[in-house]
Each structure stands twice: as C-alpha cells, then as structure tokens.
Design a protein that fits this description.
By secondary structure, this protein is an alpha+beta fold. It has a single domain, classed as Glutaredoxin, CATH 3.40.30.10. It contains eleven helices and six strands. The strands form two sheets. It has a four-stranded mixed beta sheet. The protein has a two-stranded antiparallel sheet with strand order 3-4. The longest helix is centred in the first third of the chain and has 18 residues. It starts with a strand and ends with a helix.
Length: 217
C-alpha cells in the first residue's frame, strides 16, 4: 500500500479554513498519514486588497456561522483590532509561501499554517506582513534571516505555480469551495465532504482511520 495522503485545499485568509483547524489537528494524530496543504490564493495577484469596511461586511456573517459550527473563536484583537485598521494588507501569497518554506525546511508546513491562522484570527496580526511572518517563524524555532530569504525565493519562483496547482486540484475534485479535503489511497482520490465533518471533527478522524484500516485489511 502506498503511503496515504490527505490533501487539504485552503487559503490563509479563509475563515472556514480556520474553522476546519480542529479537523486538521485530529487528522495529524493518525499514524503514517501525510497531510499535504494546497493554497488557492483567495487574495493573491489581482485580488490583493487592503482591509476595508466592505471586506468586513462580507466576512462577518460567515464568521458567525463558523463560530457556531466549529466552536473556533475569533479573538478581540482580530474583531476589534485588525478588522478596524484599513492599513492591513490582505495578500494570500506571503503566508502561503511561509507554509511552503516551513514544509521545505523541515516538513512543518501544517504547523506554520496553523500558527498563521491563530496569529490572524486570534491575535489580530497582519500575516501578509514580512516582519510578522518573520516573528512567527522565530516563534516556531526558525532563524529569521534564513527563513525570510527562503520566503522571498518562493514568492518569486514558486508560489504562483503552487496556487495554480491548488486551484486545478479543486476543479479536478469537482468541489465548489474551500476548505476541501481528499484522501489519496493507492493513487485514488476520495472526497471528504466538509459539511459532513465541519461540526464533527472526531468523525473526520474516525472515518479516515476506517478507510485506512480497510485498505490494509
């Protein structure tokens, strides 16, 4: 049996992806399961923008539903801090590149992604800012200069292609939005429908484990 892979299609500025963090955390507990994140660039390229009242008006109804379903909290520093400062850059590419850098350095891309999500939605930190990314890298044990250098290389050479591949996978899976999950077993992709698991992350882990056990039987 080939090593199983859980493909996770996400964006760092997607509140629903933050809400799915408990699903990812429980999946990480499954032995021998690799979790492969794929960024989609919700706010990359010509979609980059600054925080604005219009953006806040768009996301807040979603955040109420996310909180109710996932029990993930949005911190005061985010709700009454970052969302009220219109000098905050919303650009998905730098945090996606930070995830890729951490994955390349020591396989901790998921740890970096979760740290970035927490920093933004709990601590109200501007995670598209290079200095903030540098601080978060240091908090995870990376050397700031080396990490930021790797970040810039990925932003220049790799992140656009990574985002394109993430969007291609989303289309191939016939999924209309993200986060999206697909379990790859022996080269075959199995969609894991978000609506079934979002409020029940323990079921997500249980059914992945059952699928793996069935393959090994």
């Amino acid at each position: 049996m080939e090593s199983p892979v859980l493909h996770y299609i996400y964006d760092p500025f997607c509140g629903w992806c933050y809400g799915a963090a408990p699903m990812v955390s429980l999946a990480q507990e499954i032995p021998d399961l690799k979790i492969q994140p794929h960024g989609v660039g919700l706010l990359s390229g010509d979609k980059v923008q600054m925080m604005s009242p219009e953006w806040v008006e768009f996301v807040r109804p979603h955040e109420s539903r996310i909180r109710a379903l996932s029990k993930q909290e949005f911190g005061d520093a985010y709700v009454h801090g970052v969302q009220e400062h219109q000098d905050v850059l919303l650009d998905s590419s730098p945090p996606i590149a930070a995830m890729l850098a951490a994955d390349e350095i020591d396989g901790r891309g998921i740890a970096m992604l979760k740290k970035l999500q927490f920093a933004y939605y709990q601590d109200g930190r501007a995670i598209a800012d290079r200095a903030v990314i540098g601080d978060i890298a240091v908090e995870l044990g990376y050397e700031r200069g080396a990490f930021l250098s790797r970040l810039e290389t990925i932003l220049t050479n790799d992140v656009a292609e990574h985002i394109a591949r993430g969007n291609d996978m989303l289309k191939a899976l016939n999924m209309r939005g993200f986060p999206a999950f697909a379990l790859e077993l022996n080269g075959e992709l199995h969609n894991m429908p978000l609506g079934r698991y979002f409020a029940r992350p323990a079921l997500f882990k249980k059914e992945i484990q059952e699928m793996l056990d069935s393959q090994r039987a």
